Automatic annotation (TrEMBL):
Signal peptide boundaries: none
NCBIfam families referenced in this protein's UniProt entry, alphabetically: RNA_bind_YhbY
Record key words, sorted: RNA-binding
Record bears the keyword RNA-binding: yes
Keyword RNA-binding: yes
Tree of life domain: Bacteria
Protein name: Ribosome assembly RNA-binding protein YhbY
Molecular function GO terms recorded: RNA binding
CRM domain: residues covered: 2-98
Organism listed in the record: Weissella coleopterorum
Amino acid sequence: MIELRGKQKRYLRASAHAMNPLFSVGKQGLTENWLEQLGSAMEKRELFKVNILNNSDVTVDEVKAFIEANSSIQVVQTIGHTLVLFDQAHDPKNRSYSVNVQKI
């Protein structure tokens, strides 16, 4: 796991700016199955957004705490109901953002 510094977080936020959220948290809330799916998507992409729907019973802070406590995924930024997530891929072929982050 890469411990992110300020400049690295800025790079990741800028990279995620034009992305649309890939995952969302709805009525089912936070489950282990949801977190597993998040982890496997992280393995392929390293960086993406998660949206918390209006009908969800959880807050942004609860989602952030759940993700960081139960995985190696880091929350880079929260804006409104959207979180930007980053985690280094285990497979070197899937690493694009983490390679650039380490250069910063």
